[in-house]
Amino acid sequence: MKKEDCIFCKLANGDIPTNSIYEDDDFKVILDASPAAKGHALILPKEHFADLFEMDEKTGSALLPLAAKVGAHIKSRLSCDGLNVVQNNGAAAGQSVFHLHVHLIPRFEGDNVIREWNHLTLTDEEQEAIREQLKSELRDCDNNQSQRFKC
């Protein structure tokens, strides 16, 4: 179901013209209007999900294979050296449009489009405490399938 006030719902469902490079019953892939690199594309589900955590299993199982298919095509046709697959969730993570979407960003040696992030140095004790906290919470999620992506 699309959301009436969502710009990406309008783009994905043909209410607004796009530079579409692929479309099927569930997704539209368009060239980004403000690309980070030549050939930067967005995979837009036609159904509205605000982010990864709202996405249903059907969409999730189709999204990564589609990213691989379209990404390989972009890489081949544009002869880029690599490709970033980026999916942001929440404003703090860089999400600016709250409709699930995946960026396919062609990369060329030395382009400096996406910079390497800073790496933390954690003690063994800090790593172990984080591991235990995350591991136990994920185990609890496995026991509650109705909350599949929201644990």
Write the SSE topology:
Elements: H1 7-12, E1 20-23, E2 27-31, E3 41-45, H2 57-78, E4 82-86, E5 102-107, H3 124-142
Antiparallel strand pairs: 1-2, 2-3, 3-5, 4-5
Summarize the structure in words.
The model has no long low-confidence stretch (mean pLDDT 91). This protein has helices at 7-12, 57-78, 124-142, and strands at residues 20-23, 27-31, 41-45, 82-86, 102-107. 31% of the residues lie in helices and 17% in strands. The protein is built from three helices and five strands, in the order H-E-E-E-H-E-E-H. It is of the alpha+beta class and 151 residues long. The protein is globular, with a radius of gyration of 18 Å. The relative contact order is 0.15. The chain has a five-stranded antiparallel beta sheet.
Helix fraction bin: 25-40%
Number of strands: 5
- The helix/strand class is alpha+beta
Average pLDDT figure: 91
Give me some keywords for this one.
151 residues; five-stranded antiparallel β-sheet
Brief summary:
The chain is an alpha+beta fold and 151 residues long. It has three helices and five strands; from the N terminus they run αβββαββα. The protein has a five-stranded antiparallel β-sheet.
